[in-house]
Amino acid sequence: MALRSRISGTGSCVPRKVVTNQDLERIVDTSDSWISSRTGIKERRVSVGETTVVMAVKAARNALKSADISAKEIDLVVVGTVTPEMIFPSTACLVQSQLGIKSGAAAFDVSAACSGFLYALDAADKYIKAGAAKKALVIGVDQFSRIIDWKDRSTCVLFGDGAGAVVLSAGEGERGVLSSVIHSDGRHWEMLYAPGSIQPSHFEEKAANDYYVKMNGNETFKLAVRTMGKAITDIIEDAGLATEDIALLIPHQANIRIINATKERLKLPDDRVFTNIEKYGNTSAGSIPLALDEAVRAGRVKDGDIVVFVSFGGGLTWGATVVRW
Ligand code: ACO
User: Fold this and answer.
1) Catalytic residue at 282?
2) Is 179 close to ligand 1, i.e. is its CB under 6 Å away?
3) Which domains, from first to last, does the chain contain?
4) 188 lines ligand 1 (CB under 6 A)
5) Active site residue 202
6) Model confidence pLDDT, tens digit, residues 151-188
7) In what order do the strands lie in the sheet with 306-313?
8) Residue 137 CA to chain centroid, in angstroms?
C-alpha cells in the first residue's frame, strides 16, 4: 500500500500582547468600525520578545506533545516564513537546534508569504510519500509586526504575529493527506511585497530605500476570491470528492469578506468553515496551522473528516490541501 502523511499532532503559539482596534485608533487615522466591517478583525497579537524562532519552537513543542512523540524522532523540519529569525541560518535549523532534533535530519525554510505553511506542508508530504522522511515537523510562522509600517493604516490594521505547527507521520491506510497542490504567478509580485532592505536591489525603482509591506488591497482581494474558490473545487475534484464532502474548510485568515465570498461561491454552510481572524488578524504563514490547532482543540475535527486548507498570498502564491483526518 502507498505511503501517506498523516497529521499526528498540532500546536500553535501567539505572543501575549493583544493590540485591539481601539489601540490602533490611537496610532493611525482609523476606527474599530472600519476595521471590523472591512476585515472582520477585532484584535491581533504583537510580539514583545516572542520572535519568529521563539513562536516556532513553542508551536512545535505543542505539536510534538499532541503527537506524543519526542523531537528525536523527527527527521525533517520545514518552516514556511517570510520573516525568518536571521537571513541565515534558516529558521528551520534554529528550530532543530533548540528542540534537540538529531544531527543529520534535514531542515529548510520556504518563502511563500501567506501560503508558506501550505508550501511547507506540500514539500514535507512529498518527502514522506517518496520514503525520504518518516516524521516531519511542518511549521508556519510570521512576525509581520517587524515588517509593517505602523504609520500606514492601509496595511498595519491587517496583520498580526503567530505560529502553528503540525507533525506529519508516514503511514499506510486511508487517513492523511489525500491531495496537495501549490501554485504561483510571479507576474503579479507587485500586488503584495516587502522590499525588506534599504539597499538598492535589482528591482531598484520599486524596492530602493524602502522596507515595509506594500499591498494593492483591492486587486489582491478580487484575485484571492477567484483563486481560492477555484483551488478548492480543483483539489476536491482531484481527490475524487465533492464540495458537500468537506467537513471543515480552514482558509487562510486574511479578510472575513474573502472567506465569506469563498464560502458562498462553494455553497458551504457556516459551520463548515473555520475562522479566528477576529482574534489574530492575518498572521501570514502562521494563519492556517494556528486555525487548525484551534479547530482541533475545539473538537471541530473528527476522525475520518475531510478537512481542506486553502491559502493565497504574496508572490503571488496559492495552494490547497485535502486531508482525511
Ligand atoms: N482605516 C480607515 N480607512 C481606511 C483604512 C483604515 N485602516 N485603510 C484604508 N482606508 C480608506 C482608504 O484610504 C479609502 O479611502 P478613500 O475612499 O477616501 O480613498 C477607503 O478606506 C477604502 O479603501 P479600499 O482600499 O477601497 O478598501 P477595501 O474595501 O478594498 O478594503 C482591504 C481594504 C481591507 C485591504 C481589502 O482590500 C483587503 O482585505 N484586501 C486583501 C488583503 C489580502 O488578502 N492580502 C493577501 C494576503 S497577505 C500576504 O500574503 C502576506
Assistant:
1) yes
2) no
3) 3-174 (3.40.47.10), 178-324 (3.40.47.10)
4) no
5) no
6) 999 999 999 999 999 999 999 989 999 999 999 999 99
7) 176-184, 317-324, 306-313, 248-251
8) 14
